[in-house]
Amino acid sequence: MQVLDTAARINQQIAENPVILYMKGTPEAPECGFSRQVVETLKQIGQPYAFVNVLAAPHIREKLPQISQWPTFPQLFVKGELVGGCDIVLGLHSEGSLKELLESANAA
After folding, report:
1. Are 50 and 101 in contact (CB under 8 A)?
2. Residue 36 and residue 39: Cα distance in Å, rounded?
3. CA-to-CA distance for 101 and 99, rounded, in angstroms?
4. pLDDT digits over 7-17, tens only?
5. I need a surface site. Which of 55, 62, 65, 101 has the fewest CB within 10 A?
6. Distance separating alpha carbons of residues 43 and 50, to the nearest angstrom
7. What's the CA gap between 7 and 49, in Å, rounded?
8. What range(s) does the Glutaredoxin domain occupy (predicted)?
9. What is the arithmetic mean of pLDDT over 71-89?
C-alpha cells in the first residue's frame, strides 16, 4: 500500500506544481553540490518553484527514480515532464532555454 501512496503523492506533486525540484536538502541549505548548483541556477533565473527534500522523504527518494527513469538527484520537473538532473539543467541554462521554459511554465 505504501508504494502506491508514494507514487500517487509524487504524481500529485508533479501535476500540481508547474516547476518542482526534487533535491537533497532545501534551497536555503542544499545538502549536495549538484543540488546547490541547480538551486543557484534557479535563483539566477528568478522564477518560482516548489521543492521536495528527498533526504527528509525517504519513500519519495526511493520511488521517484522508478517513476522518472532517472537514477540520481536533483531532478527538475517542468509542466509535468522531467527536464533532467544537474548537468542537463546547467546545459539548458548556458544555452538560454531554461529561463524561457520556466517562464512559460509559470505563466500558464
Report:
1. no
2. 5
3. 5
4. 999 999 999 99
5. 62
6. 12
7. 21
8. 19-83
9. 97
